[in-house]
Write a structure and sequence with these properties.
single chain, 524 residues, alpha+beta, Monooxygenase, 4-stranded antiparallel beta sheet, 9 helices, 25 strands, 31% helix, F-box_dom, F-box-assoc_dom_typ3, F-box domain-containing protein, F-box-assoc_interact_dom
């Protein structure tokens, strides 16, 4: 940083004016700035660095920050072609983000997100805690190395508002008798807990052996510093209950589900359940499965909300008619809309208030080391070569299209200049004016060429970009076809006008010769 003596006088005066303001006012200004700008401000002076890095300021900034939903797409294979993991941010206006998130590797899985932080499950021996805003990652050793049957759904991430601590939890399968490495994939009796900033994981025993299958099939959520998931309860009407784990006290509690009996369809299959968070409350979504096709649902999708945790009182919040071509389970609920995935690989948002309607979203899909992730991290694997080549080919197509547009415009301009040079040879004013108007139609009116993005687009923006490329190619083809036809028409009009002028000149010359001959005869 430059010393006070080497700084320009204007810069010193400006800093003096700003720092002369009350600290409370400076903080209120900073609260309105995005994180990316705040990070640059920390290097301006010691006073600003102290304000922005203060934990209380960070908490206040998080509270005032706009709430975005993270729509995560795990790595999958479609028609034999691998598609990398990706994520889309949806803001309060339901506008999806454009660029890919660089901290997400192509083979990562999302364990949880909180206050702009992500916990990503990798195929290596570490978990990745990533910061959306700064791009920094904390690589954390998994609690058990090379654990067979481990799954990203067995990890959860949350923040407790009272202790201000971030914690990662892991449901550890019970060990198999006679094996030192294998663990049971159906039951667990220990939750492993890691607090960010600590040195190691800690084991917390559960009140009883619980079902891992319930976690894998129904999910787990973190609400106000409490991890919530479904457990088996065969004596209850729904044969399930909610188990909670308080991240502060590290204690367990059970919540009974509604006592109501479902009116299932006579020809329907077993009922499925999912736990979700809506508006900061525990919600249970349930629907009946199709007996012949268990991945399809029949009837309605009910969403029940826990109104009062102390009294364990539930109410039916939504009752949605379910289409059979939807993939089971609500994918995401955000600001009074629910996102459901259909089997055509598109996602649709369903309005939960007012009139029901569908809106299509353009989607197909112990020691810690802090460092910035490499932009190519995970992409060097051979299986992603074809994906990279495909993106490169699309960029080449855009480049070729822009070059073709430049050449097409230049050709049309040269033709226009040539035709305008021929206009003075046409004597008929009406024809010359008509041709002049057509010459003005030769030059194509093409959309402005926007610079190509330097960052990789996410899957939604990539699909939109491909659609834009196809539409622009088609538009360019039709415009240039019309320009060529206009050029041919102008050339034909010019040739016709010239021929008519020649014919008229020859006829006038004959008449003049005949008149001279008749005049000579008269003199004779």
């Amino acid at each position: 940083m430059a010393s006070e003596e080497t700084k320009p006088k204007k810069q010193r005066d400006e800093e003096c004016i700003i720092n002369g303001l009350p600290g409370e006012l400076i903080e209120r200004i900073f609260l309105r700035l995005p994180v990316s700008t705040l990070l640059r401000c920390t290097g301006v002076c010691e006073q600003w660095h102290k304000i922005i890095r203060d934990p209380q300021f960070v908490t206040s900034h998080l509270q005032d920050a706009p709430q975005c939903a993270v729509l995560f797409f795990p790595q999958e294979s479609v028609s034999g072609e691998p598609h990398p993991a990706d994520a889309i941010l949806i803001d309060e206006a339901w506008s999806p983000s454009t660029y890919a998130v660089p901290v997400i590797g192509p083979d990562d899985f999302l364990c949880g997100s909180c206050n702009g932080l992500l916990v990503l499950y990798t195929k290596s021996s570490t978990l990745k805690v990533a910061n959306f805003a700064t791009g920094e990652c904390l690589h954390l050793e998994k609690p058990v190395k090379n654990l067979r049957g481990d799954h990203f759904l067995f990890y959860n991430f949350g923040f407790h508002p009272l202790t201000k601590e971030y914690k990662i939890t892991h449901f550890l399968g019970d060990p198999v008798v006679g094996s030192t490495r294998s663990h049971n994939n159906s039951r667990f009796s220990v939750i492993q807990v890691y607090t960010l900033g600590d040195e190691k994981w800690r084991d917390i025993k559960t009140p009883e052996a619980l079902s891992l299958n319930c976690v894998k099939n129904s999910g787990a959520v973190n609400i106000d510093g409490t991890v919530c998931w479904l457990i088996e309860d065969m004596v209850a009407n729904w044969q399930h209950a909610v188990m909670t784990f308080d991240l502060s006290e590290e204690s367990f509690a059970r919540i009974q589900l509604p006592a109501i009996v479902h009116e299932d369809c006579a020809g329907g299959g077993p009922r499925r359940y999912w736990i979700r968070e809506i508006d900061g409350k525990i919600c249970i979504a349930t629907a009946q499965a199709c007996p012949s096709l268990p991945r399809r649902l029949v009837g309605t999708l009910q969403i029940w909300e826990l109104e009062n945790k102390t009294e364990q009182r539930w109410s039916l919040k939504y009752n949605i008619q379910y289409s059979p071509d939807y993939i089971p389970g609500p994918n995401l609920v955000h600001r009074n809309k629910i996102i459901l995935q259909r089997r055509n690989s598109n996602l649709y948002s369903y309005e939960l208030l007012g009139e029901n309607f569908n809106t299509k979203l353009y989607v197909y899909k112990k020691t810690a080391i802090v460092r910035r992730p490499k932009q190519r991290e995970g992409w060097e694997l051979k299986k992603w070569e074809a994906w990279e080549h495909q993106l490169s080919d699309y960029e080449k197509l855009w480049t070729c299209l822009h070059e073709e547009e430049h050449e097409g415009i230049a050709l049309a301009e040269r033709s226009s200049i040539s035709f305008n040079g021929l206009l003075p040879r046409i004597l008929d004013d009406a024809i010359r004016q008509d041709i002049g108007m057509k010459i003005n139609q030769i030059c194509p009116s093409l959309p402005d060429q926007q610079p190509r993005p330097l960052r990789r687009l996410n899957c939604v923006a990539q699909k939109q970009d491909r659609e834009n490329l196809s539409a622009r190619l088609e538009n360019y083809s039709s415009i240039m076809k019309a320009s060529r036809e206009a050029s041919k028409s102008i050339m034909s009009m010019i040739l016709s006008a010239v021929e008519n002028q020649r014919g008229a000149s020859g006829s006038n010359a004959g008449i003049s010769s005949q008149n001279r001959s008749e005049g000579d005869d008269a003199k004779a």
